[in-house]
Design a protein that fits this description.
The chain has about 150 residues and is an alpha/beta fold. The protein has helices at about 10-20, 40-50, 65-75, 85-95, 110-125, 130-150; strands at about 1-5, 60-65, 80-85, 100-105. The longest helix has 18 residues, at about 130-150.
């Protein structure tokens, strides 16, 4: 799953290609041509609605900085987004926090770094390789985030 606003279109296109080449199914639910204009809040809503439908396990979203789309997509229930600028963080997003959306900025990361980040994110699994104790802490943390989301805290 990929989506970009106008400022992240070229980065999205390079990431889509490397994911497809690696055998991942990629569905683009957003801006299809560079001449189009999709704003960050529109991109966030489009991806969030697609994620909420249950059709997609993970999402990648792009804009100039990664911040705007992350802010917008993360306002939707069940969508856990993190703006990312490093390969290390990309590999840990899902593993530690169970994040299901990674946001990136075209003006922040190069296409090569973004491609490696995307592969790290989509290939990671929640609590993978953790000791039982650390996995319990990660699960407790995600349960707490869901309580906050439901307004129980």
């Amino acid at each position: 799953m990929n989506l970009a606003d106008a400022s992240g279109f070229r980065l999205k296109e390079s990431v889509k290609q490397v994911l497809a080449d690696a055998g991942h199914t990629v569905t683009d639910v957003g801006q299809r041509r560079e001449e189009e204009t999709v704003r960050y809040y529109e991109a966030g809503e489009l991806l969030a609605r697609a994620m909420q439908s249950g059709a997609y396990e993970r999402g990648l979203i792009f804009c100039g900085s990664g911040a705007g789309v992350c802010l917008a997509v993360g306002k939707f229930k069940g969508v856990y987004a993190v703006a990312c600028e490093s390969e290390y963080t990309a590999a840990e997003l899902c593993r530690i926090t169970n994040a299901n959306v990674m946001a990136m900025g075209e003006k922040v990361v190069t296409p090569a770094v973004a491609q490696r980040m995307a592969l790290a994110f989509v290939n990671s699994r929640w609590c993978d390789g953790m000791s039982p104790e650390k996995a319990a802490v990660a699960r407790e943390g995600f349960a707490r985030v869901r309580q906050i989301e439901r307004g129980e805290v």
